Automatic annotation (TrEMBL):
Species the sequence originates in: Lingula anatina
Domain Glycogen debranching enzyme C-terminal, chain residue ranges per copy: 1086-1538
Domain Eukaryotic glycogen debranching enzyme N-terminal: 30-120
Recorded name of the encoding gene: LOC106156752
Name recorded for this polypeptide: Glycogen debranching enzyme
Entries under InterPro entries matching the protein: 6-hairpin_glycosidase_sf, AGL/Gdb1, AGL_central, AGL_euk_N, AGL_glucanoTrfase, GDE_C, GH, Glycogen_debranch_met
Annotated EC: 2.4.1.25, 3.2.1.33
């Protein structure tokens, strides 16, 4: 089995204490940094031992060291720290940032739970938690110890493998199983005939484990001890009393008041109020309420324990005024409040006299005498004190009214309510309500005397009882100050036990901590498992301490608890702190069979047909593992609540749960009453193998013992053999079918149970819908029902719910005598006495008809796959074995799939993995994107289209998703995948491979299809992705998952599309065809080159696919960095062949239908050539490549390939010369057919060079010649024919690009790779040569002068200062017709910074970048316009048909929406100038690197979560999705990848530090 690894993503500020994570020993846990931490110096600490030999210490944390699986030093996305899981228990982790290691102030924390591994038998056979089968016994009912073995043998023979013993220790006077008198002493009840010790118990427990293979569990009771525990008299500090908890004094006095009410009622002293000892009706309760509210409570004024003595405070205040003790009150602050007397004496509370002085010792205008002033001050204070007292009176009155309500509710339950005991009359033994406190021993006193004793040394033995608070916060100790549970009478009190007080730490009560630790150690030395009694009320830090001690003795201790928090989150807090392995759940909580079936499904297992999970996968929150009881020992018998006929089917349903199961002794024997933990005193019967039984023995014939043994065997087998998938089917109101499925061998067990939540009026079968079972029914595992032994009393049983004849045996606990479980095991399907099985022809479906299936019946079928499915599974398993991962870039020689994939080019993989609907339809093969009914079309036709949807489905096991339904309903999707690949020659072999595999897939049962389909595609897609990366550069091959994800943009965007071809090359041109494919659909074979889509799905085919500007902005990131040099070369030459007017096409249109309406594409083209010569080995040879000119002159018709060839350097030179000469032409075919929105003037294209500045200039107000090219199209809004962003004049990015190109050409000329050193310019008198160096210098000298906007006004540079909106920035353009447009803040200057950083003064550059970061930076992209600009509108909607000219018909395309590609240049610029400035500002580069990574973390999340596995064209304001944006945009992906490429080449201090750590 592959090594299991779980991956947990850490995020800043998280607290996962209420999130449950479960792990197993032998696994590995990896922590990775989430987006919020990827830029931080994160340190992770964990208290899980580093190896099994190291003892666990909760306070000992070890720092985990970072590991980096990729070779990248800059990208930490894949880095992880590792924990080898070697110990069971609960463990904590925390992490800090920026080098800290303080556990008390971490930046995030959490816990994880590791399951124990239990063993049974002499051979130490493992017992999985899902195989645990517990029987609970009241240990006191086992009787003398010498008889235990025979009584416990009942559990063994019934098929249980664990016995839960209630506490074995000496019990208190109440004989309650959970009221322990001495935690360290064996109950003397077990030693009537001989003295026994815990050692004897240990020997029996050892025998049970080794010989019976039965483990043992007992309770740990930490929260209370018996009233008569002798050690609490010696150590009263161990209990909540009125000395260590004086806040309980008012509650104690109220308790004594109510006790005296009981005595008065019992003695007839309140008959004058209409209250007699016999409580018969609600009227009696109202008389009691009236007495309490009108007489008793007003008499004893409990509010005085909280209020102040007004006269005494005034006296003190007046005295201090007279003595002048009030001078220095400057630092006294706050309002006047009552200060509670810590001893809670009547009127003992006070106020802060300093505050009183400051607030009430004030001047009184108009008062002349000192005495009069003092009198008025005292009067004001008295008013305030009386107000404060009244607030406290009202508060206490509210508490007391709730106390009265709860007191009466308790009386109602005890004396009136159905389901309550309904006592005859009030007596001392049966009081109105049990007391909350244990008074000191001695005679009874009057209430007045009892109040006096509260303040004497007797108070230390006035103990508080323990109990349970319904609906209270379990994380709060209800006996501590701040809680009013005792005062409000909200406690369901246990009058035989007192509540233990540990304090916050060991030093607060050393004896108690030591005593309970000794009790814990003694217990776990004997028992294999513990149940934490009253866990939800036990202080967490106490139980944590005790269980840590327990696990030192027994490391694989199994810990269970029954929590009553009513909150899964709170349950998880307890589980995480204490390492609770299973929570006790109970089938009796279900109100009908549907709910009971839901519980079976809820408490364990995956759905049948669940997806196969990879060995390395995310660690996801878990549902608490359940110990699912049919009945716990706390509750009444199902015979009392439901019906005796429900006991077998409910037990059967519980046994089908994929978790631990349990039952209470007596359930299997059909005991029809609650075996009460307090009141029951009779012993259990013993096991006998004899056929005849007496009242002291039982055998297999008693109750449902035989049925339970069969069910326990089944449950154990299902857990042991891995039947961990569950399906619950509600057949009718009473009948439930549960399937347990083994995902490894695909065996199933289907159990059908007919419940009886109400006692049946008839035992006829009636109609039960037939059950359809797919596969081969091998055997009936068991069938049975509960029957009446004597048929003559059947009618009587039905009438009296089956237990009228039960008589309690005075000596032994006994069950119903008239019932017997008829059970048969391993029955041949044709021998069933309960069902008839019909086999359908030509199908592997079995129809089960129920002909004798009365209430109380169960039947279980064992089902195997049919032979055809079995053979198909074998074939698929063989296929899986032939799909190993690609290792070190090497394909397996023995894998047929590897052999096929190794031959596929990246162009082929574009077809295999991607291609949107338009691209696919363009092939003319009849395929488009696959449409999933009730879901919609997949985004890609290739495998990624499916995997993008299947990924989240498989992770969450969402088998109800429409895609899963589609797969189960038919083989359409697998057929589609194979057929579309077979339709192309280059992928035909791969299509045939899928076809063969999917043929076998189709033979599986339909419920397995989604799982196996997903497994096939997951493994094959992984190999195909690896095959793609194998064909890329080393940077990609060894890169992080983020880098690799971005690099796949090269495969997504780059492919051959018939309607978007490149122009043909010259026949003599040696163009590469590695990424080409053969088009056999025409008369002759033709070589077809890949093109680069601008974006999907909008720019995928036809004339809209190939954009010159987009292609060359994206070329460096998507082609050069991944190492696709041949494709880059082909595109450079192809676009160069179409040069006309010194420009390359904006829209290529195969060259013959090109549009030359942009000024910037040619400069991006030349920048790409520069990048090519720099990044490709011998790249400068490209300049000598021949270009077949389609338009050798501006006015020529398209020429045939090879008719006019010239070297690439001549084409470049022509472009430069044309700009110097000046470009001005009107587009061919100008008019509505070419562009229906443009005005006539807009078709005129102009570009030139300003010889004074060297700036490229051009355009006009009627068109838009840069990337911001939105043309208005709304007649209604009046923006039709108006460009939103003309950007005429000198656009800033074009200045940078031209400067970059010139600098490069100077170098190329000096190296002899470029034959020209300048261009020719005509003056009025002559032609002169302008060298590239001169041109370069002009731009350098002019740039800051004309583009920088100073932080403060400089008149000589600002002829129109009113146009300046922001300072400390670079203009977007220079010389625009609309002068204000120059001053708009846009992100375009970042391009110039990256390609020509020498133009910028570094400090100015940093100022501009900081401004852009504050104003323009969005979550994923850059705002295209300053939000404070009048034209800003950040939300793009191309369908907007309003009258708003700023946004109608998407006019605001570049006027605010946040485009992604500029963020790449912005981040690269920040890195570049941070490196320059780092010398003068140390640390700036490291801070900038962190900033860049923080920003890019969002792009990482976007690309791995997007169904397109790409980055969008743009977002609306603040990163909101834009439905009109391309979902996958070439330059968005490219520019982000370029940032990572640049980042990797930097050597920062942070990277060096991280490298040394890892």
């Amino acid at each position: 089995m592959a090594e299991q690894v779980r991956v947990l993503v850490l995020e800043k500020g998280e607290n996962k204490e209420s999130t449950l994570y479960r792990l197993e020993k032998g696994w590995k846990l990896h922590f990775v940094q989430g987006p919020s931490l990827q830029v931080e110096n994160v340190r992770v600490f964990c208290n899980h031992p580093t190896c099994a030999d190291v003892p666990f210490s909760r306070e000992k944390y070890t720092e985990l060291l970072w590991q980096n699986p990729s070779s990248m030093k800059s990208d930490v996305i894949d880095m992880f720290v590792e924990v080898n899981i070697v110990c069971a228990g609960s463990f904590n982790y925390y992490f800090t940032i920026d080098g800290g290691n303080n556990e008390l102030s971490p930046n995030g924390r959490g816990s994880f739970l590791v399951d124990p591994v239990m063993h049974v038998g002499l051979e130490n056979e493992p017992l999985p938690m899902d195989c645990v089968q517990v029987q609970s016994v009241l240990t006191k009912c086992l009787g003398p110890f010498e008889g235990w073995k025979d009584k416990l043998k009942v559990a063994k023979e019934s098929g249980y493998n664990m016995v839960h013993f209630t506490p074995l220790q000496e019990l208190g006077y109440s004989n309650s199983s959970y009221s322990l008198r001495d935690q360290l002493k064996l109950n003397p009840l077990f030693c009537k005939n001989k003295q026994y010790t815990m050692d004897d118990v240990a020997e029996l427990i050892k025998l049970m484990k080794n010989e019976w293979k039965v483990l043992s569990m007992t309770d740990l009771v930490y929260n209370h001890t018996a009233n008569d525990s002798p050690w609490i008299q010696e150590h009263p500090e161990c209990v909540y009393n009125l000395v260590n908890s004086p806040h309980l004094k008012p509650s104690y006095f109220l308790d004594r008041m109510l006790w005296h009410v009981t005595l008065d009622v019992a003695g007839g002293k309140l008959e004058y109020r209409g209250i007699t000892p016999v409580i018969k009706s609600e009227t009696d309760l109202e008389h009691i309420r009236s007495y309490l509210n009108d007489e008793l409570l007003p008499k004893y004024k409990l509010h005085e324990f909280y209020t102040v003595d007004v006269d005494q405070v005034i006296k003190s205040f007046k005295s201090q005024l007279g003595e002048g003790l009030y001078t220095d009150l400057y630092h006294t602050k706050g309002d006047l409040q009552i200060v509670q007397d810590p001893q809670f004496k009547r009127l003992g509370s006070t106020v802060d006299m300093a505050i009183a002085m400051k607030l009430f010792n004030v001047d009184k205008p108009g008062i002349r005498t000192r005495d009069e002033r003092i009198r008025l001050c005292c009067e004001d204070l008295r008013v305030k004190l009386e107000e404060l007292n009244q607030e406290k009176v009202d508060e206490i009155h509210g508490h007391l009214q709730q106390a009265v309500t709860n007191f009466l509710a308790n009386i109602r339950y005890r004396f009136l309510q159905d389901g309550g005991p309904k006592y005859d009359k009030v007596t001392r033994k049966q009081p109105l309500m049990f007391s909350y406190f244990l008074p000191p021993p001695g005679p009874e006193f009057t209430l007045e005397k009892e109040e006096q004793l509260m303040h004497t040394d007797k108070a230390n033995v006035m103990f508080a009882h323990n109990g349970w608070v319904m609906g209270d916060d379990p994380l709060r100790n209800f006996a501590e100050p701040g809680s009013n549970v005792y005062l409000r009478r909200e406690l369901i009190v246990w009058g035989d036990s007192v509540k233990l007080r540990y304090g916050e730490k060991y030093e607060d009560c050393p004896f108690l901590w030591d005593h309970m630790r000794q009790y814990t150690v003694q217990t776990v030395e004997i028992f294999h498992a513990v149940r934490l009694d009253n866990c939800h009320s036990t202080p967490l830090h106490v139980a944590e301490y005790m269980l840590d001690a327990a696990r030192k003795i027994r490391p694989d201790l199994y810990v269970v608890a029954e929590l009553f928090t009513r909150s899964e989150h709170t349950d998880n807090i307890f589980m995480n702190h204490l390492g609770i392995n299973s929570l006790i759940r109970e089938a009796q909580s279900a109100w009908d069979s549907h709910e009971e079936g839901r519980l079976v499904y809820r408490y364990g297992g995956e759905p049948v047909g669940a997806f196969m999970k990879p060995a390395v996968r995310p660690l996801v929150p878990a549902v608490a593992h359940a110990l699912f009881y049919d009945l716990t020992h706390d509750n009444m018998s199902p015979v009392q609540r439901r019906s005796v006929y429900d006991m077998l089917p409910t037990a059967a349903l519980v046994s089908m749960a994929c978790c631990a199961t349990g039952s209470n002794r007596g359930y299997d024997e059909l005991v029809p009453h609650h075996i009460h933990v307090v009141e029951e005193g009779r012993p259990y019967a013993s096991w006998t193998d004899q056929t005849h039984v007496c009242h002291a023995t039982i055998n297999m014939c008693n109750g449902i013992v035989a049925g339970k043994r069969a069910l326990n065997r089944l449950h154990f087998e299902l857990g042991k053999k891995g039947f961990n998938q569950v399906f619950v089917d509600q057949r009718d109101y009473d009948t439930v079918a549960v399937t347990r499925h083994n995902p490894h061998n695909h065996m199933s067990v289907v159990l059908v149970a007919r419940t009886a939540f109400k006692h049946p009026h008839s035992l006829d079968t009636g109609y039960i819908p037939p059950l359809h079972i797919a596969g081969r029914i091998e055997t009936i595992v068991l069938e049975g029902h509960l029957g009446v032994i004597e048929t003559v009393v059947l009618e009587s049983h039905l009438q009296h719910r089956g237990h009228h004849a039960h008589k309690k045996d005075p000596q032994f606990i006994n069950g119903l005598p008239d019932f017997h479980c008829h059970i048969r095991e391993d029955v041949s399907p044709d021998q069933s006495q309960m069902v008839h099985i019909e086999h359908t022809e030509n199908s592997h479906i079995n129809v089960v008809h129920f002909h004798h299936f009365p209430p109380g019946s169960v039947i279980a079928f064992r089902i195997a796959l049919d032979p055809v499915s079995t053979a198909a599974l074998t074939s698929i398993a063989t296929t899986f074995s032939q799909l190993p991962p690609i290792k070190d870039g090497q394909f397996s020689e023995t894998s047929p799939f590897h052999s096929i994939v190794s031959k596929l080019t990246l162009s082929d993989l574009n077809r295999v993995l991607y291609r949107c609907d338009n691209e696919e339809r363009d092939d003319g093969k009849g395929f488009g994107a696959y449409n999933v009914p009730r879901y919609g079309s997949l985004v890609y036709c290739g495998l990624q289209g499916v995997m993008s949807v299947m990924g989240p489905i498989s992770l969450s096991n969402d088998l109800g998703h429409p895609l899963c339904c589609n797969l189960r309903d038919g083989d359409w999707l697998p057929g589609y995948i194979a057929a579309r690949l077979k339709a192309q020659p280059s992928t035909q072999q791969l299509g045939e491979w899928f076809e063969a595999v999917f043929e076998q897939l189709s033979k599986l049962p339909r419920y397995l299809i989604p799982s196996y389909f997903d497994a096939i595609l997951t493994q094959t897609s992984s190999i195909i992705h690896d095959a793609a990366w194998c064909q890329m550069s080393t940077f990609i091959k060894t890169g992080s998952t983020f880098v690799k994800a971005l690099s796949l943009g090269s495969v997504q965007m780059c492919g051959y599309v018939k309607t978007a071809r490149l122009p043909d090359y010259s026949p003599g041109t040696t163009t590469s065809v590695q990424n080409a494919q053969t088009d056999d659909g025409e008369d002759k074979e033709e070589v077809c080159h890949d093109t680069l889509s601008a974006g999907l799905p909008h720019f995928s085919s036809g004339i809209w696919r190939n954009w010159g500007r987009d292609t060359f902005i994206a070329l460096r990131g998507l082609l050069l960095i991944p190492g696709r040099h041949d494709v880059a070369r082909n595109l450079i030459l192809a676009y160069g062949s179409c040069m006309r007017h010194g420009l390359i096409p904006n829209l290529l249109g195969d060259g013959t239908h090109a549009r030359y309406n942009c000024r910037d594409a040619v400069w991006w083209w030349m920048q790409s050539i520069k990048d090519y010569t720099k990044m490709v080995p011998d790249g400068s040879l490209l300049l000598q490549e021949f270009v077949s000119r389609m338009y050798p002159t501006d006015d020529s018709e398209p020429q045939k390939p090879g008719a006019h060839n010239c070297p690439l350097y001549d084409v470049i030179q022509e472009a430069l010369q044309k700009h110097i000469d000046g470009i001005s032409f009107k587009e061919r075919n100008a008019g509505p057919k070419l562009d229906m929105d443009m005005t006539d003037a807009g078709f005129t294209v102009q570009a030139s060079v300003d010889m004074q500045t060297g700036f490229i200039s051009g355009g006009n107000v009627h068109n838009c010649g840069t990337w911001m090219d939105k043309m208005g199209s709304s007649n209604r809004a009046g923006n039709k024919g108006k460009p939103a962003t003309p950007r005429d004049g000198s656009a800033v990015e074009l200045i940078g690009l031209s400067k970059s190109v010139l600098r490069w050409l100077i170098r190329m000329n000096e190296e002899g790779a470029y034959p020209y050193s300048g261009v020719k310019a005509k003056t009025k008198s002559q032609e002169v040569t302008i060298t590239f160096k001169d041109w370069d210098k002009k731009i350098q000298a002019s740039f800051e002068r004309y583009f920088w906007i100073h932080t403060s006004p400089v008149p000589e540079y600002e002829p129109r200062p009113s146009l300046v909106n922001k300072r400390g920035m670079y203009k977007d353009s220079h010389g625009a017709s609309h002068e204000w447009a120059d001053y708009q803040l846009r992100p375009n200057f970042c391009v110039a910074m990256v390609v020509a950083p020498e133009l910028f003064t570094p400090t100015n550059a940093w100022s501009a970048l900081s401004l852009a970061e504050n104003v323009l930076l969005g979550p994923l992209g850059m705002k295209t316009l300053d939000p404070s600009d009048w034209a800003y509108d950040g939300d793009y909607d191309n369908d907007d048909d309003s009258g708003n000219p700023k946004r109608a018909k998407g006019f605001n395309y570049h006027q605010g929406p946040e485009w992604l590609w500029p963020i790449g240049y912005f981040l690269r610029a920040k890195l570049l100038f941070a490196k320059i400035l780092d010398k003068s500002k140390p640390g700036l580069l490291d801070d900038t690197v962190k900033c860049v990574k923080r920003i890019l973390s969002k792009h990482h999340q976007e690309i791995i979560s997007s169904h397109w596995r790409s980055l969008p064209e743009l977002t609306n304001s603040n990163g909101k999705p834009c439905r009109h944006s391309s979902s996958a945009q070439a330059w968005s992906v490219s520019c982000v990848l370029e940032v990572l490429y640049d980042l990797e080449k930097m050597d920062t201090k942070a990277q060096k530090r991280r490298k040394s750590k890892s």
